[in-house]
Each structure stands twice: as structure tokens, then as C-alpha cells.
Amino acid sequence: MDPLTQGLLGASAVANTRMANAPRGAALGLGFLGGMAADLDVLIRSSSDPLLFLEFHRQFTHSLIFIPFGGLLCGLVLHALFAKRKGISRWQSILFCTLGYATHALLDACTTYGTQLFWPFSNERISWNVISIIDPLYTLPIAALLALSLGAKRQWLARIALAWVFAYPALGWYQRERAEDLGYQLAASRQHQVVSLSAKPSFANLLLWKVVYRTPEYFYVDAVRMGIRPKIIEGTAIAPLDIERDLPWLQQDSQQAADLERFRWFSQDYIALSANNPLQVIDLRYSLLPNETEALWGIELSPQHSEQHVQYFTQRRDTKTKTAKFWEMLLH
Hints:
Layout: H1 3-15, H2 24-36, H3 52-56, H4 67-83, H5 90-109, H6 136-149, H7 156-189, E1 196-201, E2 208-214, E3 219-225, E4 231-238, H8 243-246, H9 255-266, E5 271-273, E6 280-283, E7 297-300, E8 311-314, H10 319-331
Antiparallel strand pairs: 1-2, 2-3, 3-4, 5-6, 6-7, 7-8
């Protein structure tokens, strides 16, 4: 999720605990900063290896087993920086930061990106697909309720904020189940044999969903609008990446072959050859429009430099036109 939402969840966790004599505003600040801290892993990058950040973002800092260590580090640092001057004890600083830190990975797992909750025991990327990476309908009520709860005799509003923290993803789970059911119905109407199927919320809402299912031959990408009366917006199909067919020149023991497998793991095997460039492999999970196969990012290989790392790229074509189309799909 975005840093603001992460921080607000951390503050919400602290707001619903006993603070003894700790100043409420400072305590919530510790929870807020603790809630954001796990994303410091974005600083782990390499100028020579463009995929390094994909491996380490949402890795050890987001593991459930790392929560006590992350909370301890945050608490000690923030206690020295400001909490001590606010009259908060060292153990309170650690407690509030740990509560905030503990919310981070679980919220990330609610999105589609993938979070290594069980590192180092497993490198599986957990993604429950119940909320978009950015969703103001989730974030703004939490922010407003927490702000109001700072007033005298308004702490009960923090409990409503915490209820919203859980209620909105629960609604997302319900919508995801409906979207997946509709996806299976669509596949059956096409007489397709489904190998796997997933539904993911489109940007900033729980109404319009991207449904991707795989048959032995193709990925099929469609959008479904999950209102009172569900609506299918049919999309396109694309063949899954087949290395022997699509990249016959790629040497199995080369660096680029290893990087391709790293990207496959990151993308949870939702990869295909770009229709616009035969050297680009794309991540089908993310696109500007939920029924298209033009992905937001991917990797580019080079037959002439097989021992060098692949290049990571992002792309956004016809943004204005697609944004207008997105709103039309969402509202109608």
C-alpha cells in the first residue's frame, strides 16, 4: 500500500491500546512511523542489477518473524529522536512502534503485488487481492476518524477507524469471490479449460476488477464490474511465455535466463511476450485498463549481451485516452 495508508494503520493500532500517561499525539506518531518503516527496503538497489529491488522489496522487512526486530529498531531510534522529549518511556516507544510495524506486511498482503510473509522459511509471495495498492475510499475515512479522535472525549472514533480497517478488506474479499465466480462463468461460456484464475481490483476501487484466467494455450484478460448487476467487459488474450518458442536464442545457463526466472517468480508466473517488442517480457497483473494485456512494466532481454543483466522498464501509453476509458468502465 501507499505510505500514508501504512502509517495510518499503524496509528490506528496504537490508538486502540492503553497508553498510560503517554501523550496521545506522540504515541500515534510512533505508530504512524512504525507502520511505514518496513518500506525502507526500497533503498536496497543496485545500479548493475535492475531486478535487485524486486527481490528485496517486501522481503525480510515484511516477514512476520521480523516484526519484533523491526519494532525494536524503530522504537529505539524514534525514542532518541523525539519520543523521549515528549515524556514517552523507552518501552512505550518500542511497544507503539512494534504495534505499527506489525500492521504493515498484513496490509501489503491484502494487495496484488505479493509479500513474503513467511521469509526465510518460504519465498512465496502472498497476495490476497482484496484491495488496490492505492484506494482513497479506504484511506480517507481512517485519516479523518483518527484526526477527530485526538479531540477530548472522542477516542471512541478510533475504534470506528479500526473497524473500517477490517471492514473494507472484508468487502474486497466478498467482491473478489464474486468476480472470480463470474470469471469461471465466462470461461465456461467460451468452453475453455481453466488452469488457473485470479481476480484483482483495478486502481483505487472495489467495483471494477481485472480477471485473468489461463488455459493450456492462452491467458484471457477481461474486466468485470461487480455492482448490483454484474457486467462483463471482454478483453483480449495472449499466449503465456514459452521460452523455446518465443526466445529460442536464450541460453539456459546465461545471466539473462536467470533474470527471467527471477522476474517470473516476482510476477507469480503471469508473464508473456510483449505484442509490441519480441525482446520484452511483461507482467500481466498490472495494466492501465483492467481488460488489456499492455502491462505497466516488464523486462527487456538482449541476444547480444546474454551475460549481462536484463533491463527493467515501465510504460504508460495513451494515458489520457485510457484514463477516460477507465472512468467510463467504472461508472457505467
